[in-house]
Amino acid sequence: MARQGLVTTVFSRAGTAAVVGWVGSARDRAAGARGLLDDSGRQGSAPSVPAGDYAAVLVYRDRILLMRDEQARVPLFFRECGGRVSAVSTSVRCLGSVTELEPRYFCRYLTGNLAQPHSDLTPFAGVHRVLGGEVVELSPTGRLRRRTLRRTRRATGPPEPTANGSGLDGAAQQLRLALENAVGRRMGTTTACHVSGGTDSTSVALLAARLLAAERGGDGGLVLLAGRFSRGELAAERPYLDVAMEEIRRHTPAVRPVIIDADDVADFDDFQHHAGDADEPHAHAFRAPFWARLHAAAAELGCDTLLTGCGADPIVDANPFHLHRLARTGALRQMTEQARAWAAESEQGLRDIVRAYVVQPAFPLAAERITALRGGGTVLGGLGTFNRPRWLRSGFARAHGYRDAGIAESRFMFGRKPEQSLYDAANYLAAPDLLSWQRARRDGFFLSHPFLDPEVVATMSRLPAAATFRPGRPKAVLRAAMADLLPAPIGGRAVKVPFNDLYARGLRRHGDELIALCRSARHPLVAEMFDVETLCRAVREARLGLGDSYSWDRVNSSLALVAWLERLDRRSGALGEAMPVSAGS
């Protein structure tokens, strides 16, 4: 067995496995890698895709297997030509050629911020992505035999009653057990936890502290990582952060709190570096400066895993697309009654709730087109998740399949059963992993998200709406599950201050630089793809506060693409080396 950073290599009579990340348990990576090698090597059996955060290359005498876990946190790519795979890497730019780009990828990327993890397309022609939960089988000489998707956590059929009836208490017990298991699987030798003072991150950190206290008698091994603001909107989070830190340390006094003062940080700081050096275009690169500070501190302390609270909003809250299921099964009176309750809870109108969770999932592209027509004369007016932004040239969109990409994206987000598609989409939307792979080789760790664990997702998808929805109390199941641990100020809070202040500050500080970046871009694809002046106008409108989160996401992703293309020729394959494919090597 050999261990080098995030890579664990194991050998046996059956073959060799190189695993990036961990399988089964983050604490014993060698055992997980051996188990994966042995289980996948059994003749006549379909390879399983166990839980974990990993990408793996398994080399046997008669075949080679490439696989990723279903969460798809660690990337894996292969270069293919004429049906033969010549190399494999966790870095797409190690395999691709800057002179052979794939325009269809950029159309798919620009339809929304979910495209990258679940699309086979990559920025480079001839380079493919191993999908989450996929097993790619090659011959010993690299001939591509088959690609198989193996989903392990899909829930089928209607929701099931909870173990103790359909009440909140039974649902809370199931979620608590699943979440404890998810946190336990992700605990490393030295574990860091994001702590923001919100319900989600505090829950994860408290469970991690309890596990360490039970196993080690409270002797440490846990780092609490937080960014602190003393001015602006985010300063209102500081009292909650202090309460969370105090409560966690009460359970495990030896934890190490690391609090980073972040008053001077803003979105888009050093944007060209963060967006341009990414392995592929990254829609959330604008937020990288804040996370970079926290992750640098965790790396200095030698952490080997970092747990977040990402994913809790869509996963452990009541599922609003349950209304869509009621409508399509003909339970219109029940749907209307529950929609009224949703509207009262969220302070929205009944019509808004029905449009968002019943009508739009059924006709997503048509609904967005109608909204765009009502958007007025601004560039950002009415711009939603799928319809073409005005700065994307119509000729480029037609030539390279933007409409088909939008249809594919809408089907992924809503599918035939939007209440189930919510969980699939949340895996990519809620945890974009801004730096977890871009910085992974340098930091020695990447992010892991207990709320997106397959067991947690399966648990929540089985629960009936009656057990999860409490008007006026978001994430009721999580609050009940953590009632014995969460301090009252955090367990009782209904809303959390968003990062809008950081975004507005970044646009005020860097708006002119972003416009200059677009106007000075020299990569030929930028001018072919974008009407640069219209994109600059969109930046100015966002700077003035026009638009909404959906339209700002479209601006952010386009700016990240411009920065990525501009630095494309200046980068080497430093993020990872390509591995030649040969069973005899």
UniProtKB/TrEMBL annotation:
It comes from Streptomyces mooreae. Residues 150-169 are annotated as: Disordered. This is Asparagine synthase-related protein. Gene3D superfamilies: HUPs (3.40.50.620). Residues 175-565 form the Asparagine synthetase domain. InterPro entries: Asn_synthase, Ntn_hydrolases_N, Rossmann-like_a/b/a_fold.
